[in-house]
Write a structure and sequence with these properties.
- It is built from two helices and 13 strands.
- By secondary structure, the protein is of the alpha/beta class.
- It folds into two domains: 44 residues; 101 residues, UDP N-Acetylglucosamine Acyltransferase, domain 1 (3 Solenoid), CATH 2.160.10.10.
- It has a five-stranded mixed β-sheet, with no helix packed on it.
- The longest helix has 21 residues.
- It starts with 35 loop residues before the first helix and ends with a strand.
Length: 180
């Protein structure tokens, strides 16, 4: 029986996307293309790269980044603060309605679809590991931890931790372990 690869049957393939090393090429945008989601991420990166305003050039760069961020936030309909902690390689193919709490931590190479909320519930905010895929309309609320290579189903309401490699689906979300 052929598995279509050179792997031993019964062994899981390693994930193609790293949970530790950010792949900034996923955020790359060409200068002359209309790509609002990548433009929004670029404005956030530009703001975070500019040192604190001590000289006139830094002040101008930060103000320009804020203006770009406001424009692309309005175009995309996303509420992603300039000061949030986002690992490299974030993909938001359909950014409409995405809301991220300023203190949430998003690991590298994550994928977030439209209408996702990553926010506070009583105390604390979510921490996402690397290469977490979040389906459309999902809500991640409270002081929870989402493990590396986890998946959150569309419209799931996640109120508890999701282990590495697991999938969370439903309202409230129940956890299943992937069998790859």
């Amino acid at each position: 029986m052929s598995t279509g690869s050179n792997m031993t049957p019964g062994t899981a393939a390693p994930p193609a996307v790293s949970a530790q090393v950010p792949d900034f090429s996923r955020e790359h945008k060409s200068w002359f293309s209309w790509d609002p989601s990548r433009s929004l991420i670029a404005s956030i990166r530009s703001y975070q790269r500019t040192p604190s305003p001590r000289n006139p050039l830094h002040i101008a760069n930060r103000k320009l980044a804020v203006i770009r961020h406001r424009f692309w936030s309005a175009v995309t309909g996303a509420d992603i603060p300039l000061n949030c902690h986002i690992g490299g390689g974030l993909l938001i193919p359909h950014p409409n309605g995405i809301v991220i709490h300023p203190h949430a931590v998003i690991g590298p190479n994550c994928l977030i679809f439209q209408q996702v909320t990553i926010g506070q519930r009583r105390a604390g905010v979510p921490t996402l590991g690397g290469h977490v895929d979040i389906g459309a309309g999902a809500k991640l609320l409270g002081n929870i931890s989402i493990g590396d290579h986890a998946a959150i189903g569309a419209n799931a309401v996640v109120l508890s931790d999701v282990p590495q490699g697991a999938t969370a689906v439903g309202i409230p979300a129940s956890i299943t372990v992937r069998n790859s």
